[in-house]
Batch of 2 targets.
Target 1
Amino acid sequence: MASQLPRERLPEQDGNMGTMVGSPAGAAPDLVTQPHHRFEHSEPQPCQAPGADHDADDMDPEERAYHERFMREAINMAELALKSDETPVGCVFVRNGEVFGRGMNETNRTLNGTRHAEFVALAGILSKHPISDLKETDLYVTVEPCVMCASMLRQYGIRAVYFGCWNERFGGTGGVLNIHSDPSVDRPYPVTGGIFREEAIMLLRKFYVQENEKAPEPKQKKTRELKTEILPMDIHAPKSTPTPPVGASTATA
Amino acid sequence: MAADTAPAAPAVGQLVPLRTKDEVRASLETHTAYVVEIPARFANAVKDAIQDAAPDFKAAEISHLRRVVQFKYLPAHLQKQFYPPARLQRGICSNGDDEPSPASLFTPLPPSDDESCAKAEDTVRFFLLCPTRCFKPADLVAILRKNPPFSVMNIQAKLLYVTVPALAPTSAEQATQWSEQYWPIAYKNTNPYGPHPSLVARNTVEIEPESSSWLALASTAAAEISQLGIGEKVGCVVIDRTRGTSEVIAVAGDCRWRSPHGDAEAHTGPGNVMAHCVQRAIAMVAKKRLRMAGTNPTLLDRSLFCDVPLTEAEKAPYDKDNIPASGYLCVDLDIYLTHEPCVMCSMAILHSRFKRCIFSKRMPLTGGMTADTAGNPLNPGKGLQHGIFWRPSELNWKFLAWECPGAADSDASIADTVHV
């Protein structure tokens, strides 16, 4: 794992999706039996947003078309990132039905593992607009926000988050943790995943069959093949996380 | 149900390793298990009978618990509860090759000082069968009845109940404590739920002598920034110890109240979250690497990131070319903070692959590092319990983390509701 840039090994890009490469041993069977991203909380969550954690599949066609329009813009940013040898994650912030700012991952060029698309977009937006505008702003991002970005968005008071595919490595809005809805001093926000999920995954897979010169000890990537089959939804559903599998094999640090 | 007790307050400046999320869980979770008294020589037969009847039950689940225990090694409260122990009838132990009269085996005899009886007593053992969730009591009794020693004795097994830690201990001290509090523990000198105690001890010894100075430097950075009115009084320092001596790689204070134009803003709302001191320090490390590699570090600069040095404390380390261009993110670097970083910054530290994290003051309402609910004097019993530094089965990096209460000048100017 040490050879990977932070956004480099996302959940849904691995070659052998059928066996959930990179997930803790034994995780996959649980995933297929669980309804996706419906979280069970052992205790009432005081800050739980009503109606948080939606699936794009539950939307009516008109609503879906509205969100797909902005997710298309986010995908365009991710494609730009791919062309720039950056991890293909893109986002747009939307206010009053209009794109308010755009961003793409810049971790490779900046040598900075925190330069995620959300940071890049907000650095542009907040140089011209007050922070309070974010309370009426929604985020569309091709990959689920990581734990860091999920916390940042909550601290800023984002209104809602829409994303493409889940991030099983370090997703912060259901993929691994639930930073958007866990107890916090900040207001929670609702999240909806699965908008153009397959396209978001394919962009990541395209990136991972390329060489990444920045990463030390490069893995053998030339032997990797680009797989084009996208498996059913279940396998990409996030883990239910409150209790980690005890004794599961640990990542190398 | 809590198995752990609150540790004594550490001395000022002493490093206290943080407990991981799984360690906290391991120290809190207990469940109930069945115990039965049997002659020692039947232990394997009973073990096999349980395994055959419950193929899903993995003995490894209770491998941290002694399976077969003599009365005298039981914790005091269980000795009292299970007194008197069943014992072999006198005469059986003296010529053990005889097939004993089964019914007499478990006849409790009045306690005696007789030495041969004491020996006989030792041959009866308390056998830990399995957690109670594996069987209903009546089913378990029925299973035992079909197997030796009960099948040959024609008596009913008497089930006893004990509370045991659900997970393995993470240190020898904990194992000793649990052996007295719950049930004899087999400690394997490992920690499945966090860094090995010897690894933590070795690292503590390495960094403890200088940690107070780095935390003091972080305080200086915090004070300088807050005097300018552009940030909260929090700060951090990035140290490289890989070459024997310590090099200060970056120093950064908080810049959340700095406007895009560089002046101080009104202190309302969250401020510029992306200008927390950890974000600034990480960006400065990256810019130093770009500079060492001959790349213009101002490429992709954005004023909102506030990643240029702004104070005396920040400038000198930033200008020093003391970091290899070939390095990867913040691998092998340590970060010292005046306060526990917020969830965003905790994850930024993880994303950046830091080696060690040391902070002075806990932030129980906003901090992302701590996994327990020890809290602080203002908010005792509180904590978000994310324990981001060590969740290797979920997050793709892990590192060591300590708190150092009282070391940095973390006065009351930072409310517990602030995200550091």
Target 2
Amino acid sequence: MNYKSSYFILTCLGFGFAFLYIPILSMVVFSFNASKLVTVWDAANSPTLKWYHSLLNNEEILDAAWISLKVAVINASGSVILGTLAGFGLARFSQFRGRFTLNAMTTAPLVMPEVITGLSLLLLFVALEQLIGWPAGRGITTMTIGHMTFSMAYVTVIVNSRLATFDTALEEAAMDLGARPLKVFFVITLPIIFPAILSGWLLAFTLSWDDLVISSFTSGPGSSTLPMVVFSKVRLGVSPEINVLATITITVVTMMIVGVSLWMARMAKLDKAAA
Amino acid sequence: MRTAGYLRRFGVTGRGLVVTLPYLWLLLFFVVPFIIVLKISFSDIDLAIPPYKPLLEWVGKNSLAIKVNFNNYAFLFTDSLYINAFLNSIKVAFISTVLCLLVGYPMAYGIARAKPATRNVLLLLVILPFWTSLLLRVYAWIGLLKANGVINNILIWLGVIHEPLTMLYTPFAMYVGIVYSYLPFFILPLYANLEKMDWQLLEAAEDLGCRPWQAFYKITLPLSRNGVLAGSMLVFIPAVGEFVIPALLGGPNALMIGRVLWDEFFSNRAWPVASAVAILLLILLVPFMMWYQSVQARESAGAR
């Protein structure tokens, strides 16, 4: 196999990645700008950490970040459980009643416009409250349920595709040796799909942490998440603190992704060495 | 063991239990809500909390009246605002999809043909923006595109222009934002497809006298059809209902249906009208979603 690429393809790659990364880098650079005008570089007083200081003292943003964090952690853990069950079922049980529906229900949230999902969830919560009194009002609980509904679809896809690349021989061997299905799942299957579960957890966390539309529909008074606060600030124009927030987000995400990828590459190498 | 047999007699099996929980969850929180949206789209607007009238009403002692009104739908079809918003959303989503194809195909192709080590790094670089907040990445474009923004400042400094260009709050800004945000969604499924390609086919074609472009057009493009379709659906369907990007970059005149729905709901508190918009949008998108699912099914069947 050869790995040749024409100059045309290389140019496209260059411009494509510039397009993807220039906006991100510009936020990082301007987060150190002293000027309140954000995009006009104040050479006399920059670089400065003053917006970092003001962000970390902004009560509104910190409160919202705390709410976002709670929702994101509960959401990620819940969607990993639901998504793993669904992904496992779809990958390992070739036939069961409702398979087609389950497959459709786990694909649709991936492409469904968020305004539709958000509106429909809110109307469900309102109807349920009228009918059985639960959920009383809207807030963290309703937001988390909303996030779990679309996050679990992503986890399902990840777990399903991980299981699809593994043949069932190991699981069958364990069963032949007398292990009960539950034990096989915990001793054989779970370790195999653990990287997928970890990616699923991180993805579900990120989806929830970033979500604006579904949160806006399903939140109540006093439970504004970080994206909701950012959105209302950004609507009024650019703000230096948002650049700082973006820079912190990018740094954390980059370290996380690179760390996990290195760890998985090492695991894959160990797998190969063991085989 | 006895309890297991007992349960099995009633059709409760381990297998059943595994899929029942996610199944019921999605049924309750994904499917049932649409039925409620459908119901409310047929009810009257009311100045109450919640702001709609019930469909079922007791009239007198023993008779139950069902009041279904199609006013909300009639309203959508008579006021040109809604029709224009629908048509404009489809246009914007379609053009954005084509732009993603033009930018994304060469990138996916380049990544698939890179050396394995380079490939992983490039792939990571495509995935990374996808993990960073969409809201923040769209916000970055405000700083780049506005009148005293980065692009205008650079162009003025270079002497290319003397007056700042108006870019923010135009259709151009909206297209840039959508293509920028959805590009990874296009590249990843297409890459997954191209990665499985047997490149020896291309060599064979060239040995037999095919020009590289011809070989691409006759071999690579048809074989990557499912990848292109899957990527296109992942861009087109959510882009039709996109709210954040038109709201931040498109300016007050950017008529997108997701934004109309949002305003009906949050600004006008017209829940029944918003529901009718959602139902029409759903009817419009369901064929595309089914198409996406069949493409996905074909793609994973081909993988095994």
